Amino acid sequence: MSNLLEIRNLSVVISEDKRVLVNDVSFDIKPGEAVGVVGESGSGKTLSALSILGLLARGLKIESGEIRFKGGDLLKSSTDPMTALNPVMKIGEQLLEVLDSHQHQITDQKGHILNGLAAVGIADPNRAFDSYPHEFSGGMRQRVMIAMSLLLSPELLIADEPTTALDVTIQRQILALVAKERKRRKMSMLWITHDLGVVANLVDRVIVMYAGRVVETGTVDEIFKAPKHPYTAGLLASLPAAGRDRERLESIPGVPPKPWQVLNTCAFAPRCKEARDICSSHRPELTSNNSSSVACFFPLGANQ
Amino acid sequence: MSLSINDVTKRYRIRAHKSVVNALNGITLSVEKGRTLGIVGESGCGKSTLARLIVGLEPPTEGSLLWSGSPLGQGVKNTIRSRHSKTQLVFQDPYSSLNPRQTIGACIAEVLNTHKLRSDAEITDRVIELLGVVGIAADMQTRFPHQLSGGQRQRVAIARALAAEPELLVLDEPVSALDVSVRADVMNLLVDLKNKFNLTYIFISHDLSMVRHISDEIAVMYLGRIVEYGTWDEVLNNPKHPYTKALIESIPEHTNVRGIDFENVLEGEVPDPANLPQGCAFHLRCPLAVESCKLKVPELLNATNSHLVACPEVLK
Amino acid sequence: MKTATGKRDWIHYYFKSTSGVIGLFLVLVMVVLSLISALNLAPIDPLEQNPIDALQGPSGNYWFGTDQFGRDIFSRSIDGMSRSLSVALLSVGIAATVGVFLGVVGGFFGGWLDNLVVRASDVIFAFPAILLALAIVNSLGNSWIDTSIAIAIVYTPIFIRVARGPVLTVKEMDYVKSVRVLGFSTPRILMRHVMPNVLAPIVVQIALSLSWAILTESGLSFLGLGTQPPDASLGLMVSEAQALASFAWWTLAFPSLFITVVVVGLNLVGDGLRDALDPARRSSG
Q1: What is the interface size between A and B, counted as CB pairs within 8 Å?
Q2: Least CB-CB distance to B254: which of A40, A241, A251?
Q3: In the prediction, which pLDDT does A136 show?
Q4: A20 falls in which pLDDT band (50, 70, 90)?
Q5: pLDDT band at A71; cut points 50, 70, 90
Q6: B8 and B63 in contact (C-beta within 8 Å)?
């Protein structure tokens, strides 16, 4: 099966001083596949997504690497980011604007929008069409944004922390909606978040980023049930969960480094329980094994 | 010694809309010394308002708050100073809770100075001691907040609260703004400090997994009222109130891959606190709602000795 | 920048800005000239009349030429500058002190006091500045202190606004709430935790207001309500030179130049301070 999206050796730097923020990142998304990118702030997960969309902020630039969509250049209308709504425009106008700015064969534009709003659970699409974003709650605005992203039936939906600001019961509504629409449309998805719980419940495959690099990839079962990278394992162990010891959390000492501070060693070595000499002198490359890959000299669960 | 909150109500008048918001409605709670009460609920449930009342940033509209029998919070201005050492607050966002123009050493020293908790000669030693207690090296004291990481800032905020020698610490989402990999460290620190200084905690969070980790008792709030209260085990492993159940089911657990139920989702939105429905505030979303729920606000009644629920339907 | 303290930082950034350095230079030149006059070190007495030398162009004796009474325009210009700066400093001093006090107290405490302060400053704002100053000078008198008080009244509301806005923001910040919970006294919170974080816009406003105050003083004198003859004032000199300028350009040019230089200088200083004091305009340290 050919890939829908291929990212090869993507590096993003600060234009001014060439400090590296995303370092040699490669991954694929297959048609219909939901991929989650997890990492902490500064891990490069958001910048990778913005690079795909060509939305890097001024002062940042793609230093090297290729982004191929269906083997060719990226078609903007085929990948829609869940962005923010403009507070001073009516929701209907904003949705019409999306249609106007892309090529499509939709004749009844308003009808198409009203259907789209109804599909994401907006009770009164006609009223919503003539409302401003502030007239809606956070959860409802998120639904409108989803409707907006889906208007042009994208093959790939890219979402960056879309539910972090929502309450958990509302988050579940939104996640359920996204899961349903994805299934119905056989759409691919790139879901970027720091919330491991969301990823475990929403996606097929997971990419773990740390200090600007991919440190581990695998199916959701591989990552959450048998993590190979000590960072992934440490992170999962540090979170409280039902049925876990309440006295003590397994903590990871220290803080994540800046991506540009570690170029030729394992970025996680100073915080790693498994680290040996080689980890602070050489950089482990991402090595694949079937469906998973890990960038570690001493991956967990490997035969010694 | 204990904290007792007796039938506390807090109303805000919103002039622009000429309306009144009931942020808290008849809250009654008590916390024994040395225990941790977890308060969980979604936005608008009143948990942060309750925090502000406990530390005296605002007075209650009705009701009283007592710490070991002496009143807290009648007219903020007069009482806040006298009880500085009893209750302290740690905020969610360590980026905004420290004065950006003060070194971290100065910000702790100021607390000791203002309340004459140490003589001038002892202040430097005490600052270093407090920083040490929260795991910050002494040579960091000349740094400004923007030179520290989020986790370090939150440690400094905790050290500053401890400088006032509190008995009760209100923790309002203390790890929510931190990076995932440093949360565990700060949570462990909080547990250590509680044991070391025999503190009482009120731990407020929307994150049920953190509340579950640290709490002895848990109160679940919805729109200004407590809907369920009990030991952590009773509330989380044997939830009674339909809202508590929905809340627990809504947490995406990383230990339970693809385990979340996307079919039976609690629908509806949280009503506007300024325009609450009659009767039980949850009845519009509740799967168990019957006619009587629309008429009368349910009382918090005993399910067992230590487990209280505000839902007559589950108590039948 | 690990060792740099917050206080030193802004000076460092100020001197990185070209406009700030030029502005400071222009202002310093004017201040030095004013001091020369104030200490009676001017080459020629500004009031001394030499009818024989009336309306002479610039020369070695009279650097800026003479007016219709044969008075030295250089000496009169620096004397006028010294008077303008005195009025500006006193009026802005009063306006900033009163305005910042009312703005900070009103913003921090809110309630009826804040309402009163805001309404009163709205009323003053409703009048054009120069007209209001005219009316006040008319009722107070013509001494330089009266002029200063008039200008101070006109500019106080600006300081109220500049101080009050940031206070409303800062008082809601968690670090102010924290120190309230820590039981610090209100004066201490205001002085140590609120003021340092609202100072930047106030400092910028002081520089800009000084230049406006000089213009207003000149305007009042031009209209005959500020400094009275025979005392020198830049505005008065410009006013008297109107009739002479067609055949004795120096009578108008030099006082006008002085006004321009000091106003431009103070504006550049204001810009430089704004850039230096605003952390968002600097690269992160």
Answers
A1: 141
A2: A241
A3: 83
A4: very high
A5: low
A6: yes
To the nearest whole angstrom, how far is the Cα of C101 from the nearest Cα of chain B? Answer: 21
Is the pLDDT at C68 greater than 90, yes or no?
no
Classified as helix, coil or strand, A172 is helix
Please give, rounded to a whole number of angstroms, the shortest distance from the CA of B169 to a CA of chain A.
19
- Among candidates B57, B82, B83 on the partner chain, residue whose Cβ is nearest the Cβ of C177: B57
Residue A21 pLDDT > 70 = yes
Q: Which residue on chain A is closest to B175 by alpha carbon?
A: A239
Which residue on chain A is closest to B266 by alpha carbon? A169
DSSP chain B: -EEEEEEEEEEEEETTTTEEEEEEEEEEEEEETT-EEEEE--TTSSHHHHHHHHTTSS--SEEEEEETTEEE-SSHHHHHHHTTTTEEEE-S-TTTSS-TTS-HHHHHHHHHHHTT-S-HHHHHHHHHHHHHHTT--GGGGG--GGGS-HHHHHHHHHHHHHHT--SEEEEESTTTTS-HHHHHHHHHHHHHHHHHHT-EEEEEES-HHHHHHH-SEEEEEETTEEEEEEEHHHHHHS--SHHHHHHHHHS--TTSTT-S-SSS---S-PPPGGGPPSS-TTTTT-TT--GGGGTSPPP-EESSSS-EES-HHHH-
Find the distance separating the first CA and the last CA of chain A, reported in whole Å.
34
SS3 (DSSP) at A158: strand
Instruction: Kindly determine whether residue C181 and residue B96, on different chains, have CB atoms separated by under 8 Å.
Output: no
Which candidate from B183, B254, B262 shows the least CB-CB separation from A176? B262
List of chains touching C (3+ CB pairs within 8 A): B
Taking an 8 Å Cβ-Cβ cutoff, which residues of chain B contact chain A? 42-43, 149, 151-152, 179-185, 187-188, 191, 206, 208-210, 212-214, 236, 246-247, 249-260, 262-263, 265-267, 269-270
pTM: 0.83
Q: What angle do CA B270, B275, B277 make, to 5 degrees?
A: 70
Residue B93 touches chain C, beta carbons under 8 Å: yes
Selected for mutation to probe chain B from C10, C115, C182, C184 (highest B CB count within 10 Å) is C182
Contact B180 A197 (CB under 8 A): no
- Per-residue pLDDT tens digits for B237-248: 999 999 999 999
Residue B203 φ then ψ, to 5°: -110, 110
> What is the C-alpha separation between C136 and C149, in angstroms, rounded?
9
pLDDT tens for each residue of A76-132: 445 555 567 787 888 998 888 888 877 777 888 899 999 989 888 888 899 999 998
Is the predicted pLDDT of residue C278 greater than 80, yes or no? Answer: no
Q: Does A204 touch chain B (CB under 8 A)?
A: no
CA distances B80 to B58, B73, B74, B165, C111, Å, are 9, 7, 9, 15, 20
Cα separation, B144 vs B150, in Å, equals 12
Is residue B287 classed exposed, middle or buried when 0-12, 13-18 and 19+ CB atoms within 10 A define those classes? exposed
State the pLDDT at residue C1. Answer: 33
Contact residues on chain B for C192, CB-CB shorter than 8 A: 99, 102, 110
Q: Is the pLDDT of residue B249 over 80?
A: yes
**Residue at C216: amino acid letter:** T
Question: With bands split at pLDDT 50, 70 and 90, how would you rate the model's confidence at C281?
Answer: low
Q: Can you list the positions of beta strands (E) in A41-180?
A: 60-69, 79-81, 156-160
- Stretch B159-186: mean pLDDT: 92
Amino acid at A4: L
Q: State ipTM.
A: 0.87
Across the interface, whether the CB atoms of B181 and A238 are under 8 A apart is answered: yes
User: With 90 as the cut, is the pLDDT of residue C43 above it?
Assistant: no
Residue C8: what pLDDT? 61
Residues of A in contact with B246 (CB under 8 A): 169
